Amino acid sequence: MEQGRVQGRERSYRKASQRRAEILSRAIELFAERGVGASLRAIGDAIGVTHAALRYYFASRDELLVEVYRRHERLEHEAPEPDAVSAIAVIERSAERNRSIPGLVELYATLTTDALHGTEHPLTRQFVQDRFRQLRAQLAERIRSGQRSGTIAADIDPDDAAALVIAASDGLQLQWLLDPDTVDVRRALTLLERLLPSAPPPGAGEH
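^ TetR/AcrR family transcriptional regulator, sequence as received from the core. Prediction below:
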């Protein structure tokens, strides 16, 4: 009897987990096509899920938006970038992938805007803060790797450079979202890589 109840709970959990994943997949498709909905009820209507069912899996609009973006990033980064790829190249490739899904760039812009109102959106603020910290750490390590190999000047602070790369990417993608025919994110980021000072060649300055 007890084993039957345990198996029943496991089946119920798997079913709920699958249903939640299905809702997230539908929401990603919706946001990619149309941008972010105004409310949890509007999102539910658009993806064919009742408001009550949506509230069962996601307590708030903030929770749904955060989980949609987390799932999108997991799918996007299933194949990790090789260690030799530079910090700017990593961001450039991500921005290039985003060109096909402007609605998810809009979702990211919505999350960062909401994060500025921490008292109203504490979950979103924590998510965005954590994401920035993790991304800065990852990019800073690539910059340190470039310094060790001699391709980036040693006197550049890796953490400051990482923050600058993220700021450039986010700002450029926002400009592209508003004016896609004028702003070329990839080209601008390539220029940033050229502006990042490289280490002098061995023997430079010697007489």
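Residues 80-200 form a domain with the Tetracycline Repressor; domain 2 fold (CATH 1.10.357).
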